[in-house]
Amino acid sequence: MIDYITNIELWISLGQGILKICLIFIIATAFIRIGKLAISKVFLFRGKAPIRISERRENTLARLLENILTYVVYFIAIIMVLETLGLDVAALLAGAGIVGLAVGFGAQNLVRDIITGFFIIFEDQFSVGDYVRISSFEGTVEEIGLRTSKIKSWTGEVHILPNGNITEVTNFSLNNSIAVVDISIAYESDIPKVERIIQELLIEIQDKYEDIIHPPELLGVQNLVASEVTLRVTCEVAPMKHFHIARMLRKDIKIRLSEKGIEIPYPRMVMYNRKEEVS
User: Fold this and answer.
1) Which of 119, 139, 204, 225 has an alpha carbon within 20 to 30 A of 266's alpha carbon?
2) Does domain 119-171 sit in CATH 2.30.30.60?
3) Residues contacting 175, CB < 8 A, separation 6+
């Protein structure tokens, strides 16, 4: 035992093995970083080309290629580490292929996830940066892989969804959005006067915000309720800009109506005191 421990050749071969393993992982990490940098440069160069695919599709493909590069490089690195440890990689891969074939019949969900992920990317159903609703989850697409997709909600949570479970997708980023603003006025207000004031304001607003695609439009009286009359304004804006433009429209309309003395309705209570006559 002492002779085995004090064997210089043993320690030399052990040190060489550890050094090779460390060197393999260092080279693999460096190769992944260089590969990701090359991928980003390629898509940056394509962005300046006269013929190009959409920016959404480019971001998705860039993320996918980076993931594939990482998996492939680490797989090769693990194979090289096993060879360094003296294992028969060829026999190991042959056995793994047989086992993988057997496991594949049971891993139907994994196969379904990969196939669905491929068609999501191929059909461009949604891309990185899109705002989507998938089942009960809603948010911005952070990453699309062959097996899972990551959706980040506006409150910061990241939802990781298997692609095989994605059956219905609502994509809010493909077309322009519509900002809808309801304005409530009191029944005592002069409706034609209020409409004229809002129309004048909408003409001024159309050039105020760059996200507005078409000029805002006053549709007219939308609703009549117990204490107020509701007018509706709509505006076509850039994708996912309807929240911002709607807030700005409400602010501008409220300021203009206050300047013109138009009263905003508020809850009222009328007290009626009945005095009974004493005979």
Assistant:
1) 204
2) yes
3) 239
> Comparing C-alpha atoms, which of 115, 118, 157 is closest to residue 138?
157
Kindly give the pairing relationship between strand 148-152 and strand 131-134: unpaired
pLDDT of 51-88, one tens digit each?
A: 445 666 677 777 778 878 888 888 888 888 887 777 77
* Contact partners, residue 216, CB within 8 Å, separation at least 6: 179, 202, 205, 206, 233, 234, 235, 249
Alpha-carbon span 69 to 66, nearest angstrom: 5
Please report the pLDDT score of residue 50 as a whole number: 47
* Positive/negative CA dihedral, 239, 220, 225, 256: positive
User: Among 168, 163, 145, 68, which Cα is nearest to 109's?
Assistant: 163
What is the Cα–Cα distance from 57 to 155, expressed in whole angstroms? 25
CB neighbour list of residue 141: distance below 8 Å, 6 or more residues apart: 126, 127, 128, 129, 130, 131, 132, 149, 150, 151, 152
- Structure token digits, residue 260: 């013109």
Tell me the CATH architecture of domain 177-259: 2-Layer Sandwich (3.30)
Query: What topology is assigned to 2-106 in CATH?
Result: Helix Hairpins (1.10.287)
Domain extents in the chain: 2-106, 119-171, 177-259
Render pLDDT for 9-59 as a digit per residue (tens, 0 to 9): 766 777 777 888 888 889 989 998 998 888 888 777 655 544 445 666 677
